[in-house]
Amino acid sequence: MDCSLNQGSTATRSIGLGFGATRGWAAGQLNISSSSTQNVSVTCSKRKVPKGKQLVAYPVGVRYKYKIQKHMTGGGKDYVTGTTGWLYAFNPGNARVACDIKSF
Known about the structure:
With 104 residues, the chain is mostly beta strands. Helix content is 8%, strand content 60%. The chain has one helix and seven strands.
């Protein structure tokens, strides 16, 4: 059985936000696309799949962990007025997947 993602399939690009930051701004800071999806086109190796199991594909990419700070300027000084908890982003590669056998 082949496990494949065909041309036109997409993987989701997630970007965590806080303090009203926009997706475009955060993507720019991480140097990744702000698009919510990434087109993927790959084929996994053929593998025998036992009865009651299925071959599944997962996107592979880079996971980011970061915090966003809120700043305020006054009296010529810059003050941090808040910091988010840990936020995460996932940037899928355009031709990278991992395959695995899972139960139904």
